[in-house]
TrEMBL record:
Transmembrane segments: none annotated. Residues 199-332 form the Fructose-1-6-bisphosphatase class 1 C-terminal domain. This is Fructose-1,6-bisphosphatase class 1. Pfam families: FBPase, FBPase_C. Keywords: Carbohydrate metabolism, Cytoplasm, Hydrolase, Magnesium, Metal-binding. It is found in: Cytoplasm. Pathway: Carbohydrate biosynthesis. Mg(2+) 2 binds at residues 114, 117, 281. Homotetramer. Its cofactor is Mg(2+). Substrate binds at residues 117-120, 209, 275. GO terms for biological process: fructose 1,6-bisphosphate metabolic process; fructose 6-phosphate metabolic process; fructose metabolic process; gluconeogenesis; sucrose biosynthetic process. Belongs to the FBPase class 1 family. It comes from Planktotalea frisia.
């Protein structure tokens, strides 16, 4: 039985005994939780340790890397490399796939991660986080090409994120229900505080970067205009808007009280196919949202069904309360 305040290890052992979670996955998830706890401390002590500001390097996305992007990346690589069944690591901050094995076996894992999400919030003391996704390969894969990690989101066996905010949260799914933990300062333990998180099907709260309005395609504009029209418009009810510039924080709010999050493809990012990355942002968050009873769409397709073409590819993102995502899909002509 899941008990509030049980430790992350007790929770994983419960899954191991009752849900068939593999022993190696228990250890890997514990290592990832340790990495998140360490990153959380780095973020909290950022100013003291001089960790704020840029690292002086850029990543494949063309973004100036923050010092904490690099520090968080190193912590994920260090901790995920402990597991002998991890064949490869795919990070937002590293161009190529980081192969840990020359020969792979059926049952090996691939870990995709965004080590520090919401980086633009770091220097202004707003919430940031980390995101990870784990896929298990059904047969040996060719380690001489990075194309071998291009696996659909529907194949994920586990996904999670952490939020480094007023408190540090860790939220995961291993394919059945979504559970959230809070980092306990004194003991350094993650304790179960949000059991069986579920997203309400309807909502009146949306999250989008409205400063991009002029760049949006017609379906997104129509949806936004309808939201702003509120009780005087087709909805017949008022809406509320939130935007934290941190996907983890916006999605955590949606998992806690419902809502919908949008980062569409628009005139400003069409050349790159959108803003947010499929393998280590949209897929893991989409898997968690679906497991909590919500939906995750590109506007025209279920995100987890998107066939990846590159491990840094970007996609349009619409996810959250099921009925609201369906409403936005309908504006795109998707039934
Ligand atoms: O700067 P904008 O347009 O508000 O975009 C914010 C979005 O970009 C991101 O910060 C991108 O993630 P990274 O910080 O990992 O690059 C998302 O977390 C967030 O939703
Ligand atoms: Mg990110
Ligand atoms: Mg990032």
């Amino acid at each position: 039985m899941l008990e509030t305040n049980m430790t992350f290890r007790q929770f994983l052992l419960h899954d191991y005994r009752n849900e068939g979670l593999e022993k190696d996955l228990v250890f890997l998830l514990e290592d990832i939780a340790t990495a998140c706890a360490i990153i959380s401390n780095h973020v909290r002590d950022g100013a003291f340790k001089g960790n704020l500001g840029v690292a002086g390097s850029t990543n494949i996305q063309g973004e100036d890397q923050k010092q904490l992007d690099v520090i968080a990346d190193e912590e994920f690589i260090r901790h995920c490399s402990n597991c002998s069944r991890v064949a490869a690591l795919v990070s937002e901050e590293v161009d190529e796939v980081h192969w840990l094995k020359k020969e792979t076996k059926a049952g090996d894992y691939i870990v995709y991660f965004d080590p520090l999400d919401g980086s633009s919030n770091l220097d202004v003391n707003l919430s940031v986080g980390s995101i990870f996704s784990i896929v298990q390969i059904a047969e040996p894969i060719d380690t001489s090409t990075d194309a071998s990690v291009l696996i659909k989101g529907s194949k994920q066996i586990c996904a999670g994120y952490s939020v480094y905010g007023p408190s540090t949260s860790l939220v995961i799914t291993t394919g059945h229900s979504v559970n959230g933990f809070t980092h306990q300062q004194g003991t350094g333990e993650f304790r179960l505080t949000f059991k069986d998180m579920t997203i309400p099907e309807t909502t009146s709260e949306f999250a989008i970067n409205a400063s991009r309005y002029r760049l949006w395609d017609e379906p997104i504009r129509a949806y936004f205009d309808e939201c702003l029209a509120g009780v005087d418009g087709a909805r017949g009810s008022n809406t509320n808007m939130r935007w934290t510039a941190s996907m983890v924080a916006d999605i955590h709010r949606i998992l806690t009280r419902g809502g919908v999050f949008l980062y569409p493809m628009d005139e400003g990012n069409r050349a790159t196919g959108g803003k947010l990355r499929l393998m280590y942002e949209a897929n893991p968050m989409g898997f968690i949202v679906e497991q909590a009873g919500g939906s995750a769409s590109t506007g025209t397709q279920r995100i987890l069904d998107v066939t990846p073409t590159s491990h840094h590819q970007r996609v349009p993102v619409i996810m959250g309360s099921k009925d609201e995502v369906a409403r936005i899909d309908a504006f795109h002509g998707k039934s």
